[in-house]
Specification:
It is built from five helices and two strands; from the N terminus they run αααβααβ. Helix 1 runs antiparallel to helix 2 and helix 2 crosses helix 4.
């Protein structure tokens, strides 16, 4: 099966969409918690860390995409087997590398045959269209 790999612009669109979704989820959670008395600060911190750190790795490992990816019709798969999702530990490592490198990681997409970012190359993942 020959895959068509999404453009840098589409991947940025997915990342921006995910950012907006995360901000909205955090805002809604904050407003919900404000309805209760004496909500521990630690609970707020845990929830926000959960959203920020686990959102992408959990969704990518379980479904192959985040909501931003879904709305952009793309999926993250194993490079050697495009039918399989990544394992959670690899998805978490991918997210960590992506977060540490920031937008710099995306600059390699246009020079890669499979349009892989640095974080994709390092964990042997590939982003493909989900058509």
């Amino acid at each position: 099966m020959i895959n068509d790999y999404p453009s840098l612009q589409l991947r940025i669109k997915a990342a921006v969409t995910d950012f907006i979704i995360l901000v909205f989820a955090m805002y809604c959670t904050s407003e919900l918690l404000n309805c209760f008395d004496n909500v521990p600060t630690s609970l707020r911190i845990y929830l926000f860390v959960f959203y920020f750190v686990l959102y992408e790795p959990l969704l990518v490992s379980c479904f192959g995409n985040t909501l931003g990816h879904y709305f952009s019709d793309i999926k993250v798969k194993q490079e050697l087997n495009n039918e399989k999702n990544m394992s959670f530990p690899l998805a978490l490592l991918r997210f960590t590398i992506k977060s540490l490198l920031g937008w710099l990681s995306l600059l390699t997409i246009t020079s890669s045959e499979k349009r892989q970012a640095i974080h994709d190359s390092l964990v042997k993942s590939v982003v493909i269209y989900d058509r």
